[in-house]
Amino acid sequence: xxxxxxxxxxxxxxxxxxxxxxxxxxxxxxxxxxxxxxxxxxxxxxxxxxxxxxxxxxxxxxxxxxxxxxxxxxxxxxxxxxxxxxxxxxxxxxxxxxxxxxxxxxxxxxxxxxxxxxxxxxxxxxxxxxxxxxxxxxxxxxxxxxxxxxxxxxxxxxxxxxxxxxxxxxxxxxxxxxxxxxxxxxxxxxxxxxxxxxxxxxxxxxxxxxxxxxxxxxxxxxxxxxxxxxxxxxxxxxxxxxxxxxxxxxxxxxxxxxxxxxxxxxxxxxxxxxxxxxxxxxxxxxxxxxxxxxxxxxxxxxxxxxxxxxxxxxxxxxxxxxxxxxxxxxxxxxxxxxxxxxxxxxxxxxxxxxxxxxxxxxxxxxxxxxxxxxxxxxxxxxxxxxxxxxxxxxxxxxxxxxxxxxxxxxxxxxxxxxxxxxxxxxxxxxxxxxxxxxxxxxxxxxxxxxxxxxxxxxxxxxxxxxxxxxxxxxxxxxxxxxxxxxxxxxxxxxxxxxxxxxxxxxxxxxxxxxxxxxxxxxxxxxxxxxxxxxxxxxxxxxxxxxxxxxxxxxxxxxx
Length: 559
Description:
The chain has helices at 2-18, 31-42, 55-70, 147-150, 177-186, 224-229, 293-312, 336-344, 380-384, 405-409, 438-454, 503-506, 526-533, and strands spanning 74-75, 82-92, 99-102, 105-106, 113-115, 122-130, 136-137, 142-143, 154-158, 191-195, 218-221, 235-240, 243-256, 263-269, 322-328, 352-358, 368-372, 392-396, 415-419, 482-484, 493-498, 514-518, 521-522, 541-548, 551-558. By secondary structure, the chain is of the alpha/beta class. The chain has 3 domains: 19-89 and 247-454, Aminopeptidase, CATH 3.40.630.10; 99-241, 3-Layer(bba) Sandwich (Glucose Oxidase, domain 1); 482-558, PDZ domain (Pdz3 Domain), CATH 2.30.42.
């Protein structure tokens, strides 16, 4: 009761001024054709998939800057609208400078061994010291490391754990390989050789875009015979000489300064996958352009429509705030653009009210919109739930997700992420402009403006932390070949699509089925589904339980 009274005291002046907080804001209807034009250009073949550092990236950037300039946004940075930053392209492994000799025998890079992304450049020579799994824990009554013997030696470490890699492992806290390598470095190891001769685990990636150096050479020996022999002390010699190659890309930011105290950030990423490769779900042999119409020409078009509207509107309710509009690059590479933006603008964030993020808002079906992040402020539900825009709004509490709002959440800002759901064309060449529901984008913008209209101007906008099961997805090397339904909010993992010639199709699974158990793991959501996958490798078999039309069924999956 007390909480309700406090809420009314804070919000009564705002609600009175707005007259009807449930009314859906009427976004300019003529914006629909502008949105269509923006999507058609950004998702055209001429932009070649908008991969950071490419000519297509530059064309998209020029288009967005041109729209900001035409609508009189103020450049947010000292040098203009652009914020330059570098992104990892690849790590080159020149033949000269990389070698590994076992008992005088030169092993072949890639075929017998390869450096991993935890490595530093450098050489090593001496005797090996087998440290089993590299675990040292009084709580678990385990000590794999002889401090005296490992000092100055080349440590040889298993990448699994004593009871394997799975969600219920007793040694789950030690599954992190970098954690174990850091311990070996502190104990004086000059280099680390990773092997897999015991237990189950995913092998480290042979190809990677960037180094996560732990400041000593680290290699993985994939030759099983040599790996087993390295469990005894051997003379080895080697060197790592990797060359990280980076590309330059840019965030784009423009300010609408209404002379107000508070600023609302509106963002969308404009990059995509280029010709595919990493991140693509395309399985064909010939590279094809990934136009990314929904992901995320749709959100970028929404951003440009907001720029046109917010610079011209005379609505006093909408002019109560300043607006910072940001088009992020390198989202597909791990939210790199938004992370860089937030870190570089730390001194300018005091007046930031909250952040609204548009990512994949172009495939609205059955008037459904997912709004993620409603737990990041106690105000969100009271603002949003009364709004009558004729939409089926599905809420998620967490401020952490695979899009740019996450970077602002970690900067202690309330966030919302607008998302109309995934589809069979996600991260495929078929995600094209003609499939975009342009009116759906328009309806998302109407909802966003309704939320802004309902926002109190004078009161601070409180931030809340949300429960996050994990900020890092488990690693897995097998797949069922299904597309999850990201708008599903019930228990389990609902299938939205099934790829032919994959394990799920072979087992008879269909779109609409809800997976509830895989192996020994109860599947309650996407996170537990990924944890279940992480315990299997190619060739394994597992029982899978699923619901179909209320009936629980069981099948066996072969990965």
